[in-house]
Amino acid sequence: DRQTLVAVLQFLRRSNLRESEEILRREARLLGDDLGAAALSPASAGLLGGSGSDADSGGSVATVATSSPGVAAVAAVPPAKGEARGDCGVGPSSRREPREVGSPVSSPSSKITHAGDVIGGAVVVEDQPDVSAVLSAYNQQGDPTLYEEYYSGLKHFIECSLDCHRAELSQLFYPLFVHMYLELVYNQHESEAKSFFERFHGDQECYYQDDLRVLSSLTKKEHMKGNETMLDFRTSKFVLRISRDSYQLLKRHLQEKQNNQIWNIVQEHLYIDIFDGMPRSKQQIDAMVGSLAGEAKREANKAKVFFGLLKEPEFDLPLDDEDEEGENEEGKPKKKKPKKDNVGSKSKKQDPNAPPQNRIPLPELKDSDKLDKVMNMKEAARRVRLGPECLPSICFYTFLNAYQGLTAVDITDDSSMIVGGFADSTVRVWSVTPKKLRSVKTAADLSLIDKESDDVLERIMDEKTASELKILYGHSGPVYGTSFSPDRNYLLSCSEDGTVRLWSLQTFTCLVGYKGHNYPVWDTQFSPYGYYFVSGGHDRVARLWATDHYQPLRIFAGHLADVTCTRFHPNSNYIATGSADRTIRLWDVLNGNCVRIFTGHKGPIHSLAFSPNGRFLATGATDGRVLLWDIGHGLMVGELKGHTDTIYALRFSRDGEILASGSMDNTVRLWDAVKAFEDLETDDFTTATGHINLPENSQDLLLGTYMTKSTPVVHLHFTRRNLLLAAGAYSSQ
């Protein structure tokens, strides 16, 4: 649009942005004389910026006096004060400044200045930029009485279109419904809004019911000021993936009907990711949609991810003395030795998909860690090979009389201790082996010990403190997440009180309280290498910490609702987060970028598990489905249906042959992971367009369902020999 262009050029000239003006003029092939000569008609002024009601709303709108009779208004954009974000389509930051506040028309020229700038002598006044600026985009645009007609007209058009386009275009119903409703409410047409909502809310997909419930409570302009759901919807463009043919069809229809109201919303609030190729079927679309902000843009899953495993450090295994013991027990030590060498040699090959060994600094191995690795290898040699013919035994730890309310469980890697986080703000640690839990002696007693003696580690422990259970006091709210460090010296717990605490398992006291989240912290987890840990909470961000830093090292911002669960990738270079916005994101620890966004769940995510080889991710949510993802290609590759309630626990067996899932429906289910991941169709076309064909084979993959009497399953853990441990609190109702 030439007039728009001229207005922008004039603005640049007045702001002494000569260079930008030159570039734009060269791009548009406009000469200097044209600029002065072209006067702005009042019509184009209206096109450039909001009408009177934009200014009335107290939003940040500045008026620019131009050299022509017309006046152009320029919408001010508050600078985001949030964290720096990568180019991964991340939404508003945790502080929720809007990213862009457009004027009613989508012309990019209307998004020029920063708030607080003086433009053409008019100062921009910021009045709560985060809310009013966001809402000012809903200024009066159409006749309120026609909204129902507009919507039903589009609905009729889509329902009468060809089957192949209907499924794709039906995705428009929900975002258009929400934006049109909010527009009516914002402009105080309350009765029209109510009637619009009642007439069309029943047409929306069932998985949007919870969002619609929130929406139905917004009936007055005042309600919209502080409502987060509303702000999210407004600030993050809703992403729809549509084939070019379907998009052209829609565009033609709206232009013929001159249905500007809907076309403006499409332009302003939706991000349509157009692909070339066949339109997707209803099943293919249903598999991927359902999150708060629509699907992920295809660009969001293009970055390279190093999903391979790091090379194990090589060290000499001090096997000799232990092997003599082995001889006494079994009388065949010779067989065991070559096996050990195999384990050592297997890890010497570098995985082609692994990150460089020094990509992020990892802690050095201590002698005790090396000893533990040796023990781990010995256990691995006796590990049971699982499969459809050989299912694991399951040992269930039931917390009886847990009237305090069990809210979190973790088990150490060597399966020697179990911890429970409770709603009465305590953390309780049990020993599940005959070895009792003991604290280190007092400083006075320690000074008497001979530090050179062989059994010094045994002598420093105080036998008088030995007990099966230790209770840790310190939190001031329910404990929602617990995690043991890999070396079993530390324990993390996170709570509703907004802190993450680090406890010593030598003294059973709190060492540090990490304060960063201002709201409840829902989950925390140690890195598989120790030292680093991650936490996620109600403030919609995940934070990466190191045990020796008070402040977080990284803040991962982008989710549009609470971060409900967090998991480290086995190579510790990535972190997966699941959220109540119904998406899963994968973050790069090195630079804090979001490298994958997975959509498809229809409810908040509550469990995550990486396969041992690092290639796949399994996720569970309140919708009772387990979804399987290929991390390298950024694709959904499977769906496991069977649970009837929220899935709170997921775990792969040690070699990745079996996936165990535990749910609030009081069952543990075992799935054939090998079969689920074989023969995957991950060709470039699928990756490019998202035409995923999920096999309907949940029943073939289900290897077993195990009921508890009345105990929801909150945690699962495979021991080093592939025995499955499960845990939960008995509920009497």
UniProtKB/TrEMBL annotation:
Disordered: annotated span: 79-110, 317-371
Compositional bias segments (type: Acidic residues): 317-328
Ranges of the WD repeats in the UniProt entry: 399-440, 472-507, 514-545, 556-597, 598-631, 640-672
A GO BP entry: transcription initiation at RNA polymerase II promoter
Keywords: Nucleus, Repeat, Transcription, Transcription regulation, WD repeat
Boundaries of every TFIID subunit TAF5 NTD2 domain copy: 142-270
InterPro entries cross-referenced by the UniProt entry: LisH (IPR006594), TFIID_NTD2 (IPR007582), TFIID_NTD2_sf (IPR037264), WD40/YVTN_repeat-like_dom_sf (IPR015943), WD40_PAC1 (IPR020472), WD40_repeat_CS (IPR019775), WD40_repeat_dom_sf (IPR036322), WD40_rpt (IPR001680)
Subunit architecture: Homodimer. Component of the TFIID basal transcription factor complex, composed of TATA-box-binding protein TBP, and a number of TBP-associated factors (TAFs), including TAF1, TAF2, TAF3, TAF4, TAF5, TAF6, TAF7, TAF8, TAF9, TAF10, TAF11, TAF12 and TAF13. The TFIID complex structure can be divided into 3 modules TFIID-A, TFIID-B, and TFIID-C. TAF5 forms the TFIID-A module together with TAF3 and TBP, and in TFIID-B with TAF8. Component of the TFTC-HAT complex, at least composed of TAF5L, TAF6L, TADA3L, SUPT3H/SPT3, TAF2, TAF4, TAF5, GCN5L2/GCN5, TAF10 and TRRAP.
Protein name: Transcription initiation factor TFIID subunit 5
Species per Swiss-Prot/TrEMBL record: Platysteira castanea
